[in-house]
Amino acid sequence: MADPELEAIRQRRMQELMAKHGGGSQPTPDQQKAQDEAKSEADERRQMMLSQILSAQARERLARIALVKPEKARGVEDVVLRAAQMGQIVEKVSEEKLISLLEQINTQTTKQTKVTIQRRRSVLDDDD
Q: Which stretches does the entry tag as region Disordered (predicted)?
């Protein structure tokens, strides 16, 4: 990603944060339309960059993941884009490399669930 694009994304994000925390007033329709356009442009740029970084099979797999878990797909996209910006990715990411990246993310974000069963004792139940 080029520096002007990165700067535009940063400025848009700062404007969103300032609007969110700055005031409780509702945005005007013009402001809302401008925000929607900026968001759609940012999404288009993001998709264009991903199409340059990911192979066709990797993009398909990521699209299938996005259908089931959009937040996980967004996180993977963020990781891939960040790595590309830092110059860690020199060639297109294959499906196998994407799978290994997904496995790494899964091991880092695995939640431990614990189920505890509390049985209620009735007054009429006797242990005798």
A: 1-45
